[in-house]
Amino acid sequence: MNQDVIRDVEDLENRLSTPTEGVLETMARLEGDLIVLGVAGKMGPTLARMARRAADVVGGGRRVIGVARFTDAASEERLQAHGVETIRCDLLDEDGLSRLPDAPNVVYMAGRKFGTTGQEAVTWALNAYLPGPVCRRFRDSRIAAFSTGNVYGLVPVASPSRESDAPAPAGEYAMSCLGRERMFEHFSRTLSIPSALIRLNYATEMRYGVLVDIAQKVRDGLPIDLSVGSFNVIWQGDANANALQTFDHLATPPWLINVTGPEILNVRETAETFGRLFGRSVAFTGAETEQALLSDSGQAFRLFGRPQISADQMIRWIADWLARGGPTLGKPTHFEASDGKF
Fold it and tell me: How far apart are CA 217 and CA 285, in angstroms?
């Protein structure tokens, strides 16, 4: 396989869902079925496929089930084609939630970020209320729940956030995500649910992510906002692998884990790199500050190893993908927002 070019969506999704040795080892130890709640987002389909592929390798007849509303029928069909069972369910419908099959292992990916401004109540319902009914429904299960590095707030570039740092969320989205964490903590303690909270910073692939946002603007001759001048990213396949391996570390109260890449990338330098790759000049707006949304993933590196794909590799892949007219999801990260409004 040519590692220098990602040919098409099929090639991309195959790479994003290839299980690592660590995932295979975790899945070999894991007993029983796995259900992914909120599977239809940007990351869920390849995480579910990775779990399915790992389960097929290690054996044991395990079911991997993906649950979502599936407003995009094609997304559901693609999962089914790769052996992931699917169930259509609005998780806020408690009758529907109650009818979901039992599963001893739960990956919780439901949530809302973009469109929060003006729709704050919906965001709080999905991010902070829903974990309560889910925990009651799956009180006899083990839960790995996605959270976000946004709960830390902006920090000095020289001091990325660690799991031991106190949260300082800015804006309703980040506050609702801290609410999600607190609900999982409450039910983990009161119902003795082994859990993990996965504080993810900017999973990235060819079709979305901070690097794609910057690359598209450079390619299209649009100015780059420097209001938030630094960021972390992690290849989505590496993030998938880290998330599945958290099942080896669940605890009561929940175990906290930062998941992102090792590099602290500078927005100006990254844009200039894309400028060289596209042969375009780059314009900038705003002034760089000394604070950004950054996390230290040293704990994840010690336990799971460093990411297999570097930021430099992602940059080269994305430039090539966009230059060839590869599809994108049209879902910007708004990483440059410093006020927490999404």
Answer: 12
Residue 341 banded pLDDT, cuts 50, 70, 90: low
The model's pTM is 0.94
Residue 94's domain spans which residues? 9-206+234-263+291-309
Q: Report whether 82 contacts 52 (CB < 8 A).
A: yes
Phi/psi-derived region of residue 194, left when phi > 0, alpha when psi is between -120 and 50, beta in every other case? beta
Q: Cα separation of 318 and 46, whole Å?
A: 18
On the CB side of 296, CA atoms within 13 Å amount to 14
Q: At residue 246, what is the residue type? A: T
- The answer to whether residue 91 is domain-embedded is yes
The domain that holds 72 is classified in CATH as 3.40.50.720
Strands of the sheet containing 34-37, edge to edge, are: 85-88, 64-68, 34-37, 105-108, 142-148, 195-200, 255-259
Structure tokens at 261: 């890449």
The answer to whether the Cα torsion of 232, 233, 234, 236 is positive or negative is positive
Contact 234, 211 (CB under 8 A): no
At residue 116 the predicted structure's pLDDT band, cuts being 50, 70 and 90, is: low
CA neighbor of 23 nearest in space, from 279, 246, 186, 226: 246
Euclidean distance between CA atoms 46 and 52, whole angstroms: 10
